[in-house]
Design goal:
Two copies of one chain form a homodimer.
Chain A (H helix, E strand, L loop, with lengths): L1 H28 L6 H19 L3 H9 L6 H19 L2 H23 L3 H26 L3 H9 L5 H25 L11 H15 L6 E5 L5 E4 L2 E6 L6 H19 L16 H16 L2 H15 L14 H8 L16 H17 L7 H13 L26 H20 L3 H6 L4 H10 L9 H9 L6 H11 L2
């Protein structure tokens, strides 16, 4: 069977990608500072080998031949994914790949210091080069797959995603959120829980909550890195966090967020380990799993009722101020977990303001791609939209404005929308889970996460990459992605 | 230039090997228990790709062509090393490689439980299979390179090493050591330093001593694993240790031993990173660097004079018994560091008895290879030699006898001799360093390791794999490997 050849070549590629995933985790978590250049060489060489494997010309023949063979639905979906990767690898000329790799690496490094120094002038020409090369890449991909250049970039992060299906979602959010933010802030309470909270105690707390919701420490780890992330592979899932001794909730919710990603990864179908169809779905679906856990579940009252005694046991004991037993009670945790505030920084934003940060970036990057916006005009456009959406001026403040995120400087255009699509999908999936599971809120309050995680595993995790996010949502919730449940969630949580 | 093609293919192979080295470190130090099967798949796939790269038939043509080009001495030595790897990779048929990989993996796993249960009967047939396959491999390699089968195995661990050059060294050691052990034990004092010594304090002590002797933490780490080892790569060198709260010297000397390996690795020639000629020399030379540091330097009085105040600062403070200020003094540390005792276990042996453990294994494994010893007769042969060499019976005690080491069960035949050749080479190199560096003992006592480490870097580390160990010894000490300095070292340390 020709299909077996495809399967074997995908298996090799999968193991190479597994190695890359572990090495990238190591780079972020373990690697000493002076070993970066060598690691860069190793990663680039392995990535080159992976590119060679996925663009091997034999693959095209094998795909054609195997489609005449009798394949089951999983095998057929696997061939589709192999074809997708093959087309993407073949579409972009190798010298363009190299040029992008060099330009983004240089620009990303420059961005680190330039951002710190609020220096737009230095980074501007570098970003211009990166955007120019990214447009070339988008054009090459678009020609190959008969879509628009921006859709071609979207597809890399979220298979099958199109601007035409983002627009109605983002238009709706943009229409009600600015006024909604005013209302939510008016009801939000400005409180604090005085620390300090020792790192070791925060770490024990994080581990206990991870275990409670279902993280499998036999096949995963928790460590520390500069930014929290979920890395590694399905059977060796490694999440990270960082600790702030003045505010334990930062790390606690970061851990729970990454645990949502991790449960997805740990729940991928074993039988398809290393095959493209066995990988996680797109970034929006991945983010829906982290946000379902963090936003839908863990920042809600049911979860905090369960968590409060665990938090008290881990972090209480000594007395700070005169809050007494209520200091770490569920009410106080809930008020902290659901504060709404306008701010400049996307990664610090709450779930109410967050979509506005994303929509701003989406509007600018689509305009960059279509040529309606030039790189030199980004700071002004950013400022204008921040004033519109959140009433904040970023004039002259590049550090907290258009230079705050690494994405564009690293060549990642088309990535931002997936954050908010994930938030919307999370609400839709959680609404379906509530409908499917009797007394889900009560179960969560009792610390019984098996019904929810089992439902997610059956309906989402175990499907791997068989379906696009919209197909999956239709199967599981009966509808493609829409804002209804997200809006209802925000109203119930922040206005009632 | 055709040489450039060889260089590029070696570079790719080198990066693949770098990735493997980091993943193997991770497996031993970080990987969660349940991720072993997946990691095994990843490692096997990458090792297979490395094998394919090093046996690529084009290499043979490129080697022939490049030898007609004008190459410098390093390039020529690099071609020699590429040829060596190519021949070894080509000599062994792929189905034999796979059969050995499966047999050793199965046998090694079985060994873990069988050793714990002192169960020779279960492991015997598995070991028979491993030895049989190893003999086939040795025969294949031997035919290809016109040497004896055992020499072909030796060459894998120590390029160019031959039984004929081991015999005179081991014969000499075997002739004087048994009586020497009696004398040394008679002068050895049985003392102890009461603990406990907290792990965190031991770790700080280890790091301080590593830094003092020259370990570069900007390009390396210290962690914990089941057995201490030095892993990683030249520009990311990772050593490990384990901690015993009752005896800090175990970990302290393990750390210093691995630091010797690490200094070698960190001192390899940058310009030849990833190329075969830029790798470390054979295992005997590698072990000479760890034993030079541990045995020649750190268990000596000069070093302990320097280390004692550091040890006191790290581990003193509280009072145990009535030893007072002398509890962690240099004299006491020296007496502890130089105890000589007969024992069953090689890895616990002191430097006086250690060679006898190795010679025993050497005599048995050469007999296994030549057919003079059958696997079924190993336990009796082991017992007989232990009685001869150390006066200890291992009758019925497989756990502390012929099942104590994983090597043979993992298919590693030809490896053991390098431990003792390394000890002998360490003495010879250290004698040369003493002759070359004015007042070396005083410098070490003052904590000034730069003269010694600089000398090692110039004379050994920076040479990479350009020379065989014997060639290097002749260049640096004027003589090939011989026991004179080792014997003098033992006499000075244990009989005077």
């Amino acid at each position: 069977m020709t299909y077996a050849r495809l399967h074997e070549s995908a298996r090799k590629l999968g193991e190479l990608n597994n190695a890359l995933a572990m090495l990238m985790w190591d780079e972020a978590v373990m690697m000493p500072a002076g070993s970066g250049n060598g690691r860069g060489e190793t990663l680039a060489t392995l990535a080159g080998m992976a590119h060679d494997l996925s663009s091997d010309p034999s693959i095209e023949d094998w795909i054609d031949a195997s489609l005449n063979e009798s394949l089951d639905a999983w095998q057929r979906a696997n061939v589709d994914q192999i074809r997708r990767a093959y087309i993407a690898a073949k579409a972009v000329p190798k010298d363009l790949v190299v040029a992008i790799s060099k330009a983004t690496s240089k620009t990303e490094q420059c961005w680190r210091t330039a951002r710190a120094e609020n220096d737009w002038r230095t980074i501007e020409p570098l970003l211009e080069e990166v955007v120019g090369l990214t447009i070339q890449r988008a054009d090459a991909l678009a020609q190959m797959s008969n879509v628009t250049p921006y859709d071609a970039l979207l597809d890399e992060y979220e298979p099958g995603l199109k601007q035409s299906s983002i627009d109605p979602v983002f238009d709706d959010l943009a229409s009600f959120l600015p006024a909604f933010v005013d209302d939510a802030i008016a009801r939000s309470s400005e409180i604090a829980i005085p620390g300090p909270f020792p790192v070791a105690a925060q770490e024990r707390l994080g581990r206990e909550l991870m275990s409670a919701v279902g993280f499998d420490f036999e096949r995963g780890r928790l460590d520390v890195s500069h930014h929290p992330f979920c890395g590694g592979i399905a059977d060796d899932t490694r999440i990270t966090t960082r600790y702030n001794e003045d505010d334990f909730l930062e790390s606690m919710f970061a851990v729970l967020h990454e645990t949502g990603h991790a449960l997805y990864q740990q729940g991928l179908p074993d039988a398809w380990r290393g095959q493209p169809v066995g990988a996680a779905g797109g970034m929006a679906l991945h983010e829906s799993q982290s946000l379902l856990m963090e936003m839908q579940v863990c920042r809600g009252d049911d979860f905090l009722r369960f968590a409060a005694p665990i938090v008290s046991r881990a972090l209480g004991g000594d007395s700070h101020g005169d809050l007494g037993a209520d200091r770490l009670g569920a009410d106080r945790l809930g008020a902290m977990a659901r504060r709404v505030r306008r701010g400049f920084i996307r990664v610090d934003a709450d779930e109410v303001t967050y979509p506005l940060h994303v929509i701003l970036r989406y509007q600018l990057e689509t305009a960059l791609l279509s040529g309606d916006l030039q790189v030199g005009d980004i700071p002004t456009a950013w400022h204008d939209k921040m004033v519109d959406f959140l009433g904040l001026s970023t004039e002259g403040n590049f550090h907290d404005g258009c230079m705050q995120d690494v994405h564009w400087f690293a060549g990642l255009i088309g990535y931002f929308p997936t954050y908010t699509l994930g938030a919307v999908a999370a609400a839709q999936l959680f609404a379906a889970a509530r409908a499917a599971i009797d007394g889900l809120g009560q179960r969560i309050g009792d610390g019984d996460f098996e019904p929810l995680v089992g439902w997610l595993r059956d309906n989402v995790h175990s499907e791997g990459r068989r379906f696009t996010t919209n197909e999956l949502l239709e199967r599981v919730t009966g509808r493609p992605l829409e804002t209804k449940d997200f809006r209802a969630h925000l109203e119930a949580r922040y206005l009632s």
